UniProtKB/TrEMBL annotation:
GO terms for biological process: peptide catabolic process; proteolysis involved in protein catabolic process. One of its GO terms (cellular component) is mitochondrion. InterPro entries: Metalloenz_LuxS/M16 (IPR011249), Peptidase_M16 (IPR050626), Peptidase_M16_C (IPR007863), Peptidase_M16_M (IPR032632). Belongs to the peptidase M16 family. It is an enzyme of class 3 (hydrolase). This is IDE. One of its GO terms (molecular function) is metalloendopeptidase activity. Its EC number is 3.4.24.56.
């Protein structure tokens, strides 16, 4: 059993309140099961599943079985690879797929299974055109993996992941108590008590062999593919028992496995550039002696008003920026009104 108690009282007071409530819980010395043999074996690999959704959505998911990476949390090779696969800037997999008009979003990284095994997944939201290029999207994914293999693990990329994770942990926002205690109670089974709070965040050991080991597991002959689209309404031959979902499962053609195994690289896919804006020094600059109690107007032009308020309460290396765009054009006629609604999602993706 794992127990986490959160309260405004002192540790001593909380202990006095809780211990009598759990003192009679018997320790049965139960050994937690661990599955060292991955449930996804050769019989389940090289499969593609087509699913017909209720809503009009289009998704492609690529999945590979990997070992349990939790014992290597100080290196966190899955996070390292997920950081690169999920990169969205120049040279990234997402950037190339978006340029071709095939996907809207991409998410990649390790995914939990059970104690002893995990998965590595790459999930994309497909455009209408993208669902006609499933094989091409998978080809680009393997070309990105091939580039990573050629480049090899980089200390500077690991350091960026480490610094970002450390910053997230150090300045972690307040969570809902119920959610937080539930999460920590589960982590007690995975980390030592001294690392139960920091373990999911802090990275300290760069081990390139571990990163290479995980990357080598991402092979075409170990892959499973899941495609979701209403396009496959006439392609499915199985109905799921409980929800009535229509789907079908097929073997991936050997010719495609060979094609992806020999797809080489794509010159447009590269490592991300070094991020010089990741902070490591969080010392605050000197504050104003008498900070203003209200925001002050520091720029006033025909197009812009800029207001500023120096924080003198929280004293954290954080900034909050709010933009208010005022224009009557958005409601001047139906065309501009619809154009404004098209603009909103673009701004949200910045």
């Amino acid at each position: 059993m794992g127990l986490c108690v959160l309260g405004k009282e002192s540790i001593e007071e909380l202990t006095e309140m809780v211990v009598p409530l759990i003192a009679n819980v018997e320790n049965m010395n139960v050994v937690v099961p661990e599955w060292k043999d991955h449930p996804v074996g050769p019989a389940q690999m090289k499969k593609i599943a087509y699913t017909v959704p209720v809503k009009d959505v289009r998704n492609l998911s690529m999945s590979w079985p990997i070992m349990d990476l939790h014992p290597y949390f100080k290196c966190n090779p899955g996070h390292y690879l997920g950081h690169l696969v999920g990169h969205e800037g120049k040279g990234s997999l997402l950037s190339e797929l978006k340029n071709r008009g095939w996907v809207n979003t991409l998410c990649g990284g390790q995914s939990p299974g059970a104690k002893g095994f995990m998965f590595f997944k790459v999930d994309v939201d497909l455009t209408e055109e993208g669902q006609e290029h499933i094989d091409d999207i998978i080809t680009l994914t393997y070309q990105y993996f091939n580039m990573l293999k050629r480049e090899g693990p980089k200390q500077w990329i690991f350091d960026e992941c480490k610094d970002l994770s450390a910053m997230t942990f150090r300045f972690k926002g307040k969570e809902k108590p119920r959610n937080y205690t539930t999460q920590v109670a589960g982590l007690i089974h995975k980390y030592s008590l001294s690392e139960v709070l920091s373990g999911p965040y802090l990275m300290s050991e760069f081990q390139p062999d571990l990163i290479t080991m995980v990357l080598d597991k991402l092979q075409p002959d170990r892959m499973r593919i899941f495609v979701v689209s209403k396009k496959f309404e006439d392609k499915t031959n199985i109905k799921e028992k409980w929800y009535g979902t229509d789907y079908s499962v097929e073997d991936i053609q050997d010719s495609k496995i060979q094609m992806w195994s020999k797809c080489g690289e794509n010159e447009n896919l590269t490592l991300p550039e070094k991020n010089d804006f990741i902070p490591t020094d969080f010392e605050l600059v000197p504050r104003e002696v008498d900070p203003a109690s209200l925001p002050e107007l520091i720029k006033d032009s025909a197009m812009t008003q800029l207001w500023f308020k120096q924080d003198d309460t929280y004293l954290l290396p954080k900034a909050c920026i709010n933009f208010e765009l005022i224009s009557s054009l958005g409601r001047s006629d139906p065309v501009n009104c619809n154009l404004m609604y098209c603009l909103f999602p673009c701004l949200k993706m910045l």
